[in-house]
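Structure, all two chains, one model.
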Amino acid sequence: MDDRATLEARLAAAVGPAHVLTADGDTEPYLTDWRGRFHGRARAVVRPASTEEVAAVVRACAATATPLVAQGGNTGHCGGATPDASGDAVVLALGRMNRVRAVDRANATLTVEAGMTLAAVQQAARDAGLFFPLSLAAEGSCCIGGNISTNAGGTAVLRYGNTRELVLGLEVVLADGSVWNGLRGLRKDNTGYDLKQLFIGAEGTLGIVTAAVLKLFAPARSRCTAFAAVVDVDHAVHLLHALKQTLGDRLVGFELMSRLTVELSRKHLPSLPDPLPGHPWYALIEANDSAADSAVGALTEAALAAALEDGIVADAAVARSEQQAADLWTLRENVAEAQKREGPNIKHDISLPVSAVPAYLAAAADRLAAALPGVRFVTFGHLGDGNLHYNLSGPEDVAAETFMRQAPLANRIVHDLVAAHGGSISAEHGIGQLKRGELARYKDPLEIELMWRVKRALDPQGILNPGKVLPEPPQR
Amino acid sequence: MDDRATLEARLAAAVGPAHVLTADGDTEPYLTDWRGRFHGRARAVVRPASTEEVAAVVRACAATATPLVAQGGNTGHCGGATPDASGDAVVLALGRMNRVRAVDRANATLTVEAGMTLAAVQQAARDAGLFFPLSLAAEGSCCIGGNISTNAGGTAVLRYGNTRELVLGLEVVLADGSVWNGLRGLRKDNTGYDLKQLFIGAEGTLGIVTAAVLKLFAPARSRCTAFAAVVDVDHAVHLLHALKQTLGDRLVGFELMSRLTVELSRKHLPSLPDPLPGHPWYALIEANDSAADSAVGALTEAALAAALEDGIVADAAVARSEQQAADLWTLRENVAEAQKREGPNIKHDISLPVSAVPAYLAAAADRLAAALPGVRFVTFGHLGDGNLHYNLSGPEDVAAETFMRQAPLANRIVHDLVAAHGGSISAEHGIGQLKRGELARYKDPLEIELMWRVKRALDPQGILNPGKVLPEPPQR
C-alpha cells in the first residue's frame, strides 16, 4: 500500500469507514467557509466521536506528516477552519463530539465536548439554573471548541470577558496524538505553567481542543435596556465611564451606533423604531442584575438623568417593555444583515484603548474621506470593549464592485492608524488565513519569533493547521 | 579579566557600581526569604532602575551563562525569589522600578513598573477614582511584578479572578536580553498567540516582567459584611450557591472558618467578638456594590433570612457598623498570626472544586486523625474559590517540634487526597523551590514535558531562575 492508502486505512480504523468522507459531494460542506471566501480541498474529512478517535486520527496523520485542520461549526470569519487548496490536509470535523460530560451546580461548572454548539452549551447551563455568558450571532451553529480556539468575544465581554476568561480546564489532543487531560474545575491552581492558555485562541495550530470545563454564573433576573444620543464619540466614552461608576458590574453591554448605522438598519427593516431621531451618535445600553426585583432600572435612569444634566448625553430613552428592549437590540443586530443587503463593503474588526477611540475615528475619517471620495462610514460596535466593526460602504452612485477594488488601500489606512493608536487589527475574529499578511505587517518581529518558538515546541512537524495564524518565520 | 570580573564590570556598567551589591551585609536581605525558610547565596545583587538596565543585566548574564533570579518584595511563600546555595546566581532586585507609567481613566487601565508595591498600585487606582481589586496580606511589601509572576490570588478572586485576569499587557525582558513590549491596553486582541499568558505565573523562569497594564474597576460605594453559622461544610457550599444566585457579582468574599479557627483567633486577640457561639462551622460573607445607596445590605439580609428558613444556615448576624464589619474580618485575618503564636504547624494551600470540599474534608479528617492521633484541624480559607488553608496543629500536650516531624506523612495524606478529588496542591502560592518535589509527584508527566518544551523554547540556556517551578525533566 502507498502512503495514501495506508493513511486512509488508518483513518477508517480510527473512526469507522462511514465517518471518513472522501467523495466530493460529502466533503464539500467542509471545504468552503461560511462566508464563502475560502475554498479548499482535502484528502479526507473525518468525523470522530470521541477523544480516543481524535487521538487515533492525529497519530495516523503524524505518522505520515499529513496536515490536520480542525473544524467545528465552520462559522469563522477568517478561514481558519478551511483547508488550503493543496488537497493534502485531513479535515477533523468535531460535530459528533457533542456531549455534556458533567454538570456541577455547586462548583458552577459545565464540562462539555468541543463539538457542542454554543446554543446547546447555553441551554445546558440554563437547565442547571445557571448562565453561560458567551453569546454571538452564530451561536446556533458555531461550536464551543471553535469559540475556545478563536477566543471568541461577543456581546458580554464588558462584564464577563472573552472566552479565555470563561475556561477553567481543557482536554487537548497534541500534535503527536497524545492526550493532555487538563479538565480541572478549579478557580485557583498555581501548579506550574497554565498550559491551557496556549491552546485558547491558537486556532488549532498548537493542539486539538476536544473538551473544556466552563465557568457558569448566576442568571440575570432583572434588566434594563436604554438608548442614549450623544453629540460625538468623546461624549459616548464619557457616558461609558459614568455608567460604569454607578452601575458597576450591572453594565453588560455598551454598543456604539452612528446615525448612518441606525438609518441603514431601519432602511432594511422599517418596522424598527427610531427612538431618538436627529442625533449623530448613539449608545445602546444593557444593564442587568441577578436579583429579581432589583433597582437596575431605577439606577440606569438616574445615571442617564445625571448624564443629561451634566451635558454628557443629549437625550435618552429607556425601554418600557420587553418588546421595546428587543426592538432596540434588533436595531443594533440587524446592521450586519442590512449591510449585506446593501451590497459589498469593506469590513474591519479593530480594537483600541477606549480612550483612543475618538481620536482614532477622527483621524481615520479624515484620511479615508480624502483617499476614497464619498466613502460612507458604517461605524458601530462594542465600545465598552474598545472593539469597533468599522465598515466602509461606497457612495450610493458607485457600483459596490468598483468600490471594493479600493479595499487594499482602505485596509492600509485603517490598520496603519490602528497601529499608531495602540490598537489591534483583529479584536475578536482571529487571524486564520484572512489576516496572516496583515499580521506579518503589524506584529513586532520579536513577537512573531516567539510565536514560532512556541509553535515548534508543540508541533515540531508543523502538521497542525499549517498556513494559518503565524506569518512566515522572520529572519533574524 | 576572568569571567567573573568581566561579568561584574558589565553589571556595573549596566546599572552603575552603586547598584551592584556584593558585600555580605548588603546582599543579606535579598538572600533569605521572608518566612526564613530558604537561605541562598549570590554572585551579586543588582538593582536596575529601568527596563534598559534590566536588559543590559540579562545580556551580561546570558553572555556568561549566569543564572538570574528576579526578586520583587521578597514576600513569596515558596522560595521562588531566593537564589540557591551555589552562589552562582545574580539576583535582579526590581524595587527601583517603581513608577506609574500611565493612568488612563477612560480606558480604566494603569500602566505600572514591576517594582511598585501592591499597596502603591491600589493607591494609584484610587487616585484615579477607580479600583484595583488584588488584595492580600503582604500588600504593603509585595511588588506587582511578583504578584504577576506568581499569579497571586487573595481575597477578591470570587468576583475579580486571579492576577492573570487583571493583566491586559506586559513588558518582558527575555532570556537573551531582548525586550518584548506587549504593553497593550486592549480588552480584545486576537492577533495570534496571547504571549503574556506565558509569563504570568511562571515565577521568573521564562522572562523578567518589567511593567504591566492593569485593569481597573469602579470602586465599591456600599457594602455588607455578615457572619453565618452552618452545621457542616456541605451546608456552607449550599449557602454559597444560594448567595451567588441572589447577590450575583455583589458577592466578593465567602470565607470558611471552623469553630476551632474562631477560638484560636480569639485566644490570641480576646477583644474580638464571638458573634455566633456554639456552632461547628461559619461563613464570613462580604458583599458590595458600586452604587452608593444600594440595596446590598437588604439583599444580603433577605438571602440569609431565606437560607435560615430553608434550613441552610443555623444562625446569622449582619454587621451594623464599619467597626463590626472590621472586627469580623479581623477575626478571619488574625488566624495566620494566631497560628504563628501557637507554634509551628503544618500548612497547606490547596484548592478543590467547591462541590468536592465537603467530601474531601471528611476523608482527610478520617485519615489524618488515624495517622496523627490528637491532630487539630485549623481549617479556613476562601471557600468561594474552593481554596482552603488546611493547616494542622499538634495536640496541646505534644511539643510542636515533635509534631512537625510528622509533616511529610501529613503532606502525603493531604496531597494524595487532593489529587484523588481533582484538586491542586498549590492554589495561590505557586511552586518556587518548596513544592517542586510535590509537583513532580502529582503532575502528569506529559504536562511536565510540555512545561519543559515551553521552557526550552524561551530560555534555551536555562539561565532564568533555574531550580524553580519545573521538576526534573521526565524520561519519556
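The mean pLDDT of chain A is 95.
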